[in-house]
Amino acid sequence: MQHKLIGTKSIEALIDEIDEHIEKGYMPTLAFVYTSVQYDVSQLHSEIGKYPFLVVGSTTVGEIYADNNHGVNTKDESIVCMLLDIDASALALTVKDIDDTNYYKLGCEISEWSKKKFDNPALITISSNHYFDNDDYVRGLQTGVSCFFGGAAGDDRKFINTYVFSGDKLTTSGVLALALDREKIEIVSSRGFGWSGIGTQRVVTHSEKNIVYTIDDKPAINFYKDYLNITQDDMPNTGADYPLEVELSNGQVVYRAAIYINEENGALVFAGHVEENAKVRISAPIGETVIEHVRESVEASLKDKEQFQADFTLVFPCAAHKSLLGKYKIKEIETVYQATKKAPLIGFYAYGEIATSSDVNAFHNETFVTVQLREKL
Questions:
Q1: pLDDT at residue 235, rounded to an integer
Q2: In angstroms, what CA-CA distances link 62 with 153, 281, 312?
């Protein structure tokens, strides 16, 4: 498999470079296109739609790419693209709007669609819209698919509109799903965290999906204010930097970023579900140690696969990793690039991360999801 990486600051330059590769005889079947919302996304969608290859497109909170020719890059307000000539018979793509609020049903529909395409499918999926219920969506996926990864599209932390797009369709409220035939493509994945709980665990005594009303029978907002002097003006950035560590009834630990404070009823709104009776505490980032945790997660995924060499790598790190690490964010990407044996890499900073799990929950905040893919011979 061959790849072509493009990093640019204009739609015109992107199209020119794609055309140049095609004129030289390169025939891609798939393109990952990640873009800042600084650009005219509708125009980009229109321009990229003229090509016959499949397009996995998303807006971001920052763009990531790496290979031997370009080195390792983390960019802001740019457009990045990876062209691939992977076996077209191993690929299928769809983009669906959410017509109502039944996100679980949408996940079931995507799951059923993928199983009609392949007997043993995997999914790369990206959602758009700040109110998209990724928890219910991934629960729907889990009804029929056991291998799926992705994230929630970003918009440079403007929190206005996020987009996903293929060559045929663009939506600000829906999902893109790329189905992969696992009989033809081998996948190795990992997810790393980097936050650590502090203080005493408390119990969620009243919650509905992503809204927590009371913790230890007291307004949830009091729990946060015991640790942080925050107001709605500090959200969602502070809530992402100091997420809630949630121990679920099945023992799984997830992190949930607080995105909104309701001063009237004392509730906290999170970027993911928090079940009643979960044990919770505030968590804090553990500095550059987060990089080591991500590296260890990648290495652990390859522990029994010494001969595995990915053709390319997809990464979906949380936007909180970017803000936490600052100028050191490049070191985290370099670490992953080295751990994946320098496989060509593309990704974006996301508002939430999706990763297959043997546990109940597969939607995460604060994580770094790595997906290595190799075409089987």
A1: 64
A2: 10, 29, 19
- Helical residues (DSSP H) of 54-143, grouped into ranges: 103-117, 134-141
Residue 363 token pair: 């939607």
Please report where in the chains the tokens 């140690």 appear, as a residue.
Answer: 289
Q: Is 239 exposed, middle or buried (0-12, 13-18, 19+ CB in 10 A)?
A: buried
Cross-strand bridge partners of residue 207: 212
Q: Are 261 and 221 in contact (CB under 8 A)?
A: yes
Residue of 193, 202, 196, 158 whose CA lies nearest to 291:
193
Is the whole model's pTM more than 0.85, yes or no? yes
The distance from CA 98 to its chain's CA centroid, rounded to whole angstroms, is 19
Task: Give the position of tokens 């509708």.
Answer: 42
Residue with tokens 């936050």, as numbered in its chain: 195
Rg of the chain taking only CA atoms, in angstroms? 20
Task: Note the maximum CA span of the chain.
Answer: 66
- E strand or H helix at 323: helix 319-325
- Look at strands 279-285 and 71-75 and give their pairing: unpaired
Cα 145 from Cα 165, distance rounded (Å): 22
Higher-pLDDT residue of 319 and 233 is 319
Q: What percent of the chain has pLDDT over 70?
A: 95
pLDDT tens-digit series, residues 260-279: 888 889 899 988 899 999 99
CA atoms of 226 and 200, how far apart (whole Å): 12
Distance CA 239, CA 78 (A): 26
